[in-house]
């Protein structure tokens, strides 16, 4: 049986070999296009096949390994999950029913377990700012103008400075829910870690739903997505490729460079690209004037790939390349986008609705939105 270290090395070697084959095939394809104005369809198919293989390997290598926490001793929470016994939970001061439905707030250890696996699965959470809150909304004061300042000598008088004008940005939260099912046999197994099971079951559902909202959400009972800021005073900066649904021939890299230099310089050191795998598949084929690929694979396990020196985050909910559509975002997501998590994940145990299975109706309250529009720019495939 292979060890995790050996499996990781094998995957890394496979990635390096696949990338070398992709470069060789794509170089041959580009040479044929230059000579014959078209490439052999079989060669095109080979490049696409290797490109898809790179996507799969890149995704698997970029996922950070999760450490397995030590099994906890039986507790009031553990008894509730396994048997439905609520007595100890009701008596405990640290845990209480969140409403009259019979649901209970998870212990902080369980909540942290869910948040940890969710961060590993969510591309947005890995690069944005995440803040815990205790209320139903978060309000952040932001300045609409700079406070005055100046220079003065050691003994000079200091003129009074004016305070900046402030406004409040609202980040309301919406309810995210999932309903994993377990067999009673699993719950009766004293060796099984039910907290780990619950975290893994809700991880993919939560990650898929919230990522869709972080990209396209309208802000109604859900986060306001990055691409929802395209109109009005809060609209993000836009760079156009010059051609509907494509790059302008010979100006692909120029468009990407314009995108990079649209946000102010203070945002570039922490900036990254965001696009879906189909868009990245097309951009991965591009080369600069010296014949070098502008996309480079991860240098170490767990790191993202890079495009023109900036990290690339893949988010499947980003749009495909279409006419008049933004398919690529660039910016400092840590400073520009805020995710708010209301503390307290609620679980309602339901052994009746889907017998012989036990359902766990799990809810988490999440909000989000752009907190600094100047940190971003969008690449729109339009004239």
Automatic annotation (TrEMBL):
Name assigned to this protein: Phage capsid protein
Region listing for Disordered, in residue ranges: 144-164
Location within or outside the cell: Virion
Pfam families the record matches: Phage_capsid
NCBIfam families, A to Z: major_cap_HK97
Residue ranges of the TM segments: none
Highest rank taxon of the organism: Bacteria
InterPro entries tied to this protein: Phage_capsid, Phage_capsid-like_C
Domain Phage capsid-like C-terminal: 102-381
């Amino acid at each position: 049986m292979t060890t995790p270290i050996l499996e990781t090395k094998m995957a890394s070697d496979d990635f390096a070999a696949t990338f070398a084959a992709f470069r060789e095939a794509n170089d041959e394809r580009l040479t044929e296009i230059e000579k014959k104005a078209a490439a052999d369809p079989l060669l095109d198919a080979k490049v696409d096949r290797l490109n898809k293989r790179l996507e799969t390997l890149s995704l698997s290598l970029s996922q950070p390994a999760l450490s397995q926490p030590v099994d906890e001793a039986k507790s009031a929470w553990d008894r509730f999950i396994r048997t439905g016994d609520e007595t100890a939970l009701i008596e405990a001061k640290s845990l209480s029913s969140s409403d009259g439905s019979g649901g209970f707030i998870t212990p902080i250890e369980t909540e942290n377990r869910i948040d940890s696996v969710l961060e590993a699965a969510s591309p947005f959470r890995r690069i944005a700012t995440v803040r815990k809150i205790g209320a139903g909304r978060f309000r952040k004061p932001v300045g609409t103008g700079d406070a005055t300042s100046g220079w003065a000598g050691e003994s000079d008088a200091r003129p009074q400075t004016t305070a900046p004008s402030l406004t409040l940005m609202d980040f309301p939260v919406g309810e995210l829910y999932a309903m994993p099912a377990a067999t009673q046999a699993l719950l009766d197994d004293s060796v099984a870690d039910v907290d780990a099971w619950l975290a893994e079951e809700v991880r993919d559902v939560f990650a898929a739903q919230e990522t869709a909202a972080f990209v396209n959400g309208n802000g109604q009972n859900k986060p306001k997505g990055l691409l929802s800021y395209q109109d009005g005073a809060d609209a993000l900066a836009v760079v156009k490729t010059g051609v509907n649904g494509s790059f302008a021939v010979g100006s692909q890299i120029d468009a990407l460079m314009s995108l990079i230099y649209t946000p102010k310089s203070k945002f570039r050191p922490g900036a990254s690209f965001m696009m879906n795998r189909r868009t990245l598949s097309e951009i991965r084929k591009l080369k600069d004037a010296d014949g070098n690929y502008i996309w480079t694979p991860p240098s170490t396990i767990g790191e993202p790939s890079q495009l023109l020196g900036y990290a690339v985050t893949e988010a499947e909910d980003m749009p495909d390349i279409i006419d008049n559509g933004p398919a690529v975002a660039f910016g400092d997501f840590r400073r520009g986008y805020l995710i708010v998590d209301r503390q307290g994940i609620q679980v309602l145990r339901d052994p009746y609705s889907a017998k012989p299975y036990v359902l766990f109706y799990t809810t988490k309250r999440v909000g989000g939105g752009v907190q600094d529009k100047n940190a971003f720019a969008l690449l729109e495939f339009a004239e």
